[in-house]
Amino acid sequence: MTEFLLRHMEDLLEQVDRTGIAASRFLTPAEAVQVEEGMKHRPVSLFFDGGFPDAERRRAIFLTQGEEAYDRAEWFAAIQIQSRAREVLRHQDILGAVMALGIERDTIGDIAAEGSGAALVCLPELGDYIVEHLVTAGRAGLSLGRIRIEELPDQREAYRIKADTVASLRLDAILSAAFGLSRAKAAALISAARVNLDYQLCLQPAKELKEGALLSVRGLGRAKLLEIGGLSKKNRIFVKIGLYSRSGG
What we know:
Blueprint: H1 3-19, E1 21-27, H2 29-39, E2 44-49, E3 58-64, E4 77-83, H3 91-99, E5 108-114, E6 117-122, H4 127-133, E7 136-137, E8 140-147, E9 159-166, H5 171-179, H6 183-191, E10 195-197, E11 200-201, E12 214-217, E13 221-231, E14 237-244
Antiparallel strand pairs: 1-3, 2-3, 4-6, 4-8, 5-6, 7-8, 9-14, 10-11, 10-12, 12-13, 13-14
């Protein structure tokens, strides 16, 4: 965990002592992994929530140890966006337009764009400002309105399931099975710093993976180790791997 992120988390823990609840700004997936690891032995309840189902950018919600309930509407503003002339809205155009308002990236969560409609999540104190001032994205004129957090669309990525067998659960073996590579090619990608494991750069071909491990390979895409099964007659391990479709958003 970086020094800045550690200080931010310590400040939040102090706030929990005073008020019983505190929340970070929106964390990247890599930052969320670092926070979860750094806080796992601290006497506090920790949840990650990004508003959207299966959100990528999420806030760390700290509660008094043993507590689990919090009002999501207090920690997120949800905004629905519609192109006035039915132009296609792109994620990068919306993000660029929001940041052009002087809004920092970590105050905005995920953005879901499909066709002429989109939705975004932000810190609650920014909701009204964005609705009032975000009038265009790219060439598209926009119409915005607040919605309830429960009305956000499900933006979970679809994946194709690939069943295979592997000699071991090493990173290079799973990478080879996922993307149809030789073990040597998989090891070369790892050595070239092109492979992230659970949002963190991994340079260890022999790293053993567990169910749920997420692989991201620059230039190839993403895959998730969905299931580890039993052994085949040749003593190989049955696995199911999810291959995410690649998109330009």
